[in-house]
User: Fold this.
Amino acid sequence: MTEYDALQKKLQRGQIKACIIQRRDEVTFEYYRNKKAENALHHIHSCSKSITSMLIGICMDEGLIPSIHTPIGEYFGKYLTTEKEKEKADITIYNLLTMTSGIDWREFGEWNYWSPMEFSNDIIKSALERDMAEPPGLTMNYNSGSSNLLSAIVQIASGMKTADFAKKYLFEPMGIEDFHWYEKQGINLGANGLKLRPHDMVKLGTLYLHEGQWNGKPVVPPEWVRESIKPRFMTYEAIGAYGYQWWSSELSAAGSAVPFYFAMGLFGQFIIVVPSSEIVAVFLSENYGETMKPMDYFREYFSEFAQL
Assistant:
């Protein structure tokens, strides 16, 4: 039995729907539970956040957003009219990107991943109406409300639905033809609403591996890519540091620490990029209650992937 036979058995037992490993722009390992898993659109949950971040970077490049330090009061002033709410008007796009708004949000705590916003009749109001726990910019606290606000900003700034903006400026230039982006109250859910095919997820990881270029043409500004994946706040050591809606951490290989970054979604959805090895890995899973299991597999077999 080879290492990859052993890995495949683990994937079969671990509720993995699809796994693709690409190195130096060539696919070196593929696993699919069945033909449907290979070709269907999959709900990528919070990996959507990382795609939403890409769109903010494109908006910046197009001159639609003047600065990441723009206060959100510029976009959501009608929600921030009382004295209590006005203090939130100075929260910036940077704070949303890094989840450092200071708003009391308990998604990784007592809410168990499902915030009241998910069941709200107004997701913008729900994202903004909670009390401030601390001033903005101090602590990263996981907050899907921030990502939905970012999607709303894309729509306000561009005059287009986030899905339409993504199609024009991100997906079509990369040959991504089929996707679905759920919406609520007319806003595409920047936190967790996107469905993609496995190979298209690999494309998006490859885009960032090549600093925003696709087939030699710029799609996302290279400086935005570098800033997005930079580790900025460490709140959840078991997961990693946080940048602009991207996570980053380190792998252990031959006694050395190897930096990498990743998009992560509930129940085990991952886009993983290891720049030094030119690896892009994608996992699509149904690991209810064990979101990090695919990452455990990747860490265990990283040395083998790096040699393929």
